[in-house]
Specification:
The protein has 305 residues and is an alpha/beta fold. The chain is built from eleven helices and nine strands. The protein has a domain of 213 residues: Rossmann fold (3-Layer(aba) Sandwich). 35% of the residues are buried. Bound molecules: S-adenosylmethionine (SAM).
Amino acid sequence: MNQDSNWANFRMPTWEDDISLNHDSTTPFNNFPSPSEMPLEEFNAKDVLTPELLGDTPLEDFIKRDTFPIPDASDREGYNPNFNARFFMTGLADFLKIKQVAQQYELDLNSYLDFGCASGRVLRHFCAQSEIPNLWGSDINGRHIRWLNDNMPPRLKLVHNNCIPQLPIADHSFDLVSAFSVFTHIDTFETAWLAELYRVLKPGGLCYLTVHNEDTWKLLQDADDNNGLLKRFRDVDPDFDELLKHDIPQERKCFRYTDVGPYRALVVHSNAYLQKTWGRFFDILEIRGKHHGYMQSVLIGRKKS
Ligand SMILES: C[S@@+](CC[C@H](N)C(=O)[O-])C[C@H]1O[C@@H](n2cnc3c(N)ncnc32)[C@H](O)[C@@H]1O
């Protein structure tokens, strides 16, 4: 459906809305200034960017290089709505984590896809901080793709995909594919999406996919009542507190918000399920608990030969 609350912009749903978030309005974006134009004091969140992640490069250098606007909070999928500098820093942390993983697994990173990239929280850093020539992003939300097309350099290629697992991208295109907080929301066609990411990866390529797994479940069990993710699960399932007294209720448990439309679920995976199902496509190198945001884990895999 149209994202505008303005009735003047209301339109009847179309078939595209069933299979994608087809925000075709021309409502302008309310961008904020770029990090390079913001006061340095605002970039003070040492919990996000640790010295191990930053290495020898001072944070100021990363900030100066990023001259792209920051999207309005309504265009960034709930990430740090009241804290623009933190939005920049969480994306930078994820970019640096990917670079570290590439180095650790001796991957020459020349081609990269961020699947479910939204308005480029992570991709902006690949554009600002790297010379990687072959950069792609895709998302089911056309408004995000429009934002990126308006604000990112031409070397980034962008695709508004739909929920049917088929990317218009050639086989063996990428050294690394990431999906940050995307498989945590894909309710149907998960295995077909895994196969699709497998297809576009080069032989030996790596995937970096975030999940809600047992580590997340344990964090939820220990979380206090103000925890945002706990609240989201409770909103979807009134019996969630009862479920949380036990282990993950199914090897893959999907909590749906509505009966129709894509991108309407919270999904939890057990590690055994990830090994059994995702492990058919990727050699699972690691599952790093609490490595994305404050509750998600990261599955690092290598395309099976
Ligand atoms: C929680 S947001 C995370 C956004 C971004 N990856 C980040 O970390 O900032 C999930 C994103 O995945 C997108 N998405 C959900 N299902 C998708 C699908 N089947 N194909 C592509 N994108 C999808 C949503 O539109 C949304 O932008």
